[in-house]
Amino acid sequence: MFYGTCSYRWLHKNYQQALALMFAIEAVNRDPNLLPNISLGYHLYNTYHSDERTLESSLQWLSGQGQFIPNYSYRQQGKSVAVIGGATSALSIQMNWNYLDSHHQTNLGFFLIQISYGPFDSILYDKVQFPFLYQMSPKDSSLHQGVVLLIAYFEWNWIGLVATDDMRGEEFLWKMRGEMIKNDVCVSFIEKIPVSERRHMESHENFMPRIMTSSTKVIVIHGDTDSLMILRYSQVPIFTIWKLWIATSHWDVTVRLHYDEGCPFHGTLTFSYLTNEIPGFKTFLKTVTPLKYPDDILLRGFWLSVFKCSDQPENQEQVICSPNTSLETLPLCSFDMTMSGLSYTIYNNVYAVAWALHEIFLGKSEKRSMKDEEYLAFHSWQLHSFLKNTQFNNSAGDQVFVDEKRSSDAQYVIMNYLFFPNGTEALVKVGQFIPSAPFGQDFTIREDAIVWGWWDSKVPCGVCSESCIPGFRKTPLEGEATCCFDCSPCLEGEISSQKNAECCTKCPEDEYPNKQRDRCLPKVVTFLNRKEPLGLALALMAVSFSLLTALVLGVFVKFQDTPIVKANNRTLSYTLLISLIFCFLCSLLFIGHPTPATCLLQQTVFAVVFTVAVSSILAKTLIVVLAFRIQVNFCGIWLGTSPPFPEADTHSEYGHIIIRCNEGSAFAFYSVLGYMALLALGSFTVAFLARNLPDTFNEAKFITFSMLVFCSASTSFLPTYQSSKGKAMVAVEIFSILASSAGLLGCIFIPKCYIILLKPDRNTQEQIKNK
């Protein structure tokens, strides 16, 4: 109830623990069924949160009311049945050693039962070192899980850990780090608070500046009110850098040494024990005054200190204590009307002793012949045997076990500490953590009810690196924690659909990434469609040219007996015109959705008819048949070994699936084209060499020019074809077919049709002879 190293001043909030003891004792003594005809009494000693004063109080109790005598126990003190004490593990251990050492030295022959009301500590569970020490506080076995659930809920991953430099702190740190790893949360730093009061100044100089200058904004702090008092000694100017604190169950964040020092813990989230309200306790606190308990000098000292008044003022500046003053008028930093976890445990401790005594006296009452003195006399070892088996339901309806093995895990309420500009403060419930509840119901939080701090109304960003948005992936930083990373965009063809993706994934073959690269879109199936403008235009051109060629053929047939038709080998002319008709029409095979049949016919029909056309120009009928057979045989081998087939090209054009014909064998395809090029080159060479020879209607010159057009179209086709993609590639091939065929038609037959139809006077034998 006091603090300090040299001068001991009141830590007012802790006086609730003494009042809880008084309330429980009075309640037991009023209960006619619990200890009838017996009243419990108590001695109240202050430990001052100091090892030195703890030893002093222990010696005072053991030695009596007079001098402090080490290794001596006043015999009348043997009537005390138990010691309830130890707000912290350190104080419990110090008290226990003092009592055990004194009992061992004096050889009094009785055991001292100690019941600790401080935080449950696994060290105190060692019955070899502490055979007669009981802990009735709930176990914090799941506390680390609740804290990490809170951290994970707000997507924080860069957390500082502060704990006391003792075994209890080490155990908490070990559990926290394991749970944080499971939830991909990184530790920014770990600081350990010295538990010795002699190191207060050292903490002021060292670890507090490191905490406040760290990059993390969220700090988990674990300890008790005693050990964490160092934080308040360590308030340096840099401490005004605001952090979000997550405090565990036994640190009262509202405790402040001075009223005017402000509060850097505004917005803190604390895990406090979730307990039912003890009936009548608040009413008791409202009515407690020094006048009600005139013999309680400790209450009087507390009253004068907390209200800053005097019952016997020595000067005019001192305020006279009002008889109507109530504890409920005090601010939260001075006194809390809600029962704390420590006070709740003290209340249960008193009742545990009372129930154990009840069982002892119940057994003795069955012996009718026993005298009153014998009835009241018992040994402390008897209390030990009864106490360890005691269990009961308290007035709040909670089941209480003295045996640590049977005590359950603590349940927690999450409180938000608020400090208002006018100096008032409050604790607001914003959530709870019930470890025994079903999954999904164990942790609840009301985010909209939380006030985060002075800096902003938004959730603080407790991360080392900003989250990578979808479309990016995390790139680890060398030498840094896994929570510290850069964000790199996904490569072409890859996506990431979630935040903080470890890697990007490729889209399926029939899908492609959107511009943000955060999802895959279905690719558009594309081919040279007859219904689209390009396909329709090419189809109309092919049909038009084929009709024009058929018209020319009709003209030649009609005027087959005219000299101009006879002079140019009618059979070869008919063969060439018919092959040109098929040349124009074969381009239709390239338009529309490719099928197995069209893929087989496209290149083979094109190759055969063009071979016929070019060879018709090159030589006589015998050469045409030979060239035709050679090309047909080669196409047959092609179709028999590696025929063309329809395929879906998912890579050539972004966002599209191109339905096209695969040539099957590239060697066969280019061999067919090469054979036609060889024939064309031969025709061009022969015609070019014969261009100046005597010839009817300059036939050699027309053939030379037609072959020049054909070779130009074919030569420009290959590079253009190779550089094109999708339906543009098909359009290039169709255009090359149409251009080559039109070149042959226009250069060889259009001049003759011009004479036949428009200049019939020149289509005579005389004109030919004159030529």
TrEMBL record:
Keyword Protein biosynthesis: no
Gene3D superfamilies: 3.40.50.2300, GPCR, family 3, nine cysteines domain
Keywords in alphabetical order: Cell membrane, G-protein coupled receptor, Glycoprotein, Membrane, Receptor, Signal, Transducer, Transmembrane, Transmembrane helix
Membrane spanning residue stretches: 534-559, 571-592, 604-628, 667-690, 702-721, 728-751
Superkingdom of source: Eukaryota
Gene Ontology annotations for the cellular component aspect, listed alphabetically: plasma membrane
InterPro entries found in the cross-reference section: ANF_lig-bd_rcpt (IPR001828), GPCR_3 (IPR000337), GPCR_3_9-Cys_dom (IPR011500), GPCR_3_9-Cys_sf (IPR038550), GPCR_3_C (IPR017978), GPCR_3_Ca_sens_rcpt-rel (IPR000068), GPCR_3_CS (IPR017979), GPCR_3_vmron_rcpt_2 (IPR004073)
Domain G-protein coupled receptors family 3 profile per the UniProt entry, residue ranges: 534-771
Membrane topology category: Multi-pass membrane protein
Gene Ontology molecular function terms on file: G protein-coupled receptor activity
Name of the protein described by the UniProt record: G-protein coupled receptors family 3 profile domain-containing protein
Species of the source: Monodelphis domestica
